[in-house]
Amino acid sequence: MQFIVTAYDHTDNEALNRRLACREAHLEGIKSMIKQGIFLSGGAMLDSHGKMIGSSVHVEFPTRAALDEWLAQDPYVSEKVWDRIEVCEARLVPVEQFK
């Protein structure tokens, strides 16, 4: 199952510092997911000043429960970077097919 995850960061004064403090750990997890074929695309969402304010990712998991397991252990969740997370099932364009 493919999913679009849109996660908005907390907006308190320390939110960006928390994001930056655990960013490398988050990206290490993403690298592992890329190798497994789980992470399809994504990145940080920016405000009009270029400040990171959230993330949008496209992922593929066998079940919604598996996606929820990933979210529960991701540093951006456990370290309170992401505040509001929206998940919807998706059917993404197979980009590799058109290269």
Automatic annotation (TrEMBL):
Domain named YCII-related: residues: 1-89
Top-level lineage group: Bacteria
InterPro entries linked: Dimeric_a/b-barrel, Sec-metab_biosynth-assoc, YCII
Pfam families, alphabetized: YCII (PF03795)
Protein family according to the UniProt entry: Belongs to the YciI family.
Name of this chain's protein: YCII-related domain-containing protein
Organism encoding this protein: Pseudoalteromonas byunsanensis
Taxonomic lineage: Bacteria, Pseudomonadati, Pseudomonadota, Gammaproteobacteria, Alteromonadales
